[in-house]
Amino acid sequence: MSLPETMRAIEISRPGGPEVLRPATVPVPVPGHGQILIRVAYAGVNRPDALQRAGAYAPPPGASPLPGLEASGTVAAVGPGVTRWRVGEEVCALLPGGGYADYAVTPADHALPVPSGLTLREAACLPETCFTVWSNVALRGGLRAGERFLVHGGSSGIGTTAIQLAAALGARVFATAGSEEKCAACRALGAERAINYREEDFVAVLKAEGGADLILDMVGGSYLPRNVKALATEGRLVQIAFLEGTKVELNFAEVMMRRLTITGSTLRPQSDLAKARYARDIETQVWPLVARGALRPVIDSEFPIEQAAEAHARMEGSSHIGKIVLKL
What we know:
The chain contains ten helices and 15 strands. Helix 7 links the parallel strand 11 and strand 12. Helix 6 (202-208) packs parallel to helix 7 (223-230). The protein is globular and about 60 Å long. With 328 residues, the chain is of the alpha/beta class. The model has no long low-confidence stretch (mean pLDDT 96).
């Protein structure tokens, strides 16, 4: 495959709001040892992209400064040491950065085949959410069949994936969302109870059910002490983001008396090896769920790459349900 020297991309001109995203022409990256080059068809839009744009989430050393943590497309070139992938194969992949461009490089072990029955558009919605949800719900959170699971932001990309995965694992699923439309979407995906946080107290709802065995939270702030109250004895809280803030006062006596576990993680800074292990798990444990329709990407909207700023504005407006994708 003949490759161009330059490509279209969206760069961050300076830290700020969506308006700082601007089209640019940059060199096509060259895959290094163990890497593949993907001709991007679609790129997923995620909250960490907005944090990076705002100057609050720097790329790891050696990663592209361009935003974009997941993409789908075709393998355009392979670096030394790559044996699994061939030029022309369709893949979706977790990226260290650089997805908002015609071409992106990533470790070959972070790429996955497009699940059977899915389009490239749908496949672009899976890597970031599946890696995040699998590692935090199934592995770190240890969710088991029959347990009560609560996910905040149930209508988000992470939330819609978490609801479906937890339901497929046999858990009883509860979700919070900010409107009846979003609550209805959560129920349709497998939540037995969707809680409109503007009208109901999720703590009261979960305590009436015996408490949550596992909570996945990306809100933080005032939700932290409320999550502790909503947990069952020996329950677990997994924190993956802090949309409401990182600092709060918490009485740890309750954590100790009820033997609670509070943990959390971020995906991007983890080692290539850790992400490769997640990829293997996802291909063997999650992709079969996708193939049989138990887990499907929920797509809110699509924007051409030139309208990346509009895509970010929609995401930060929080009116979307599911994932937003950029078309290259």
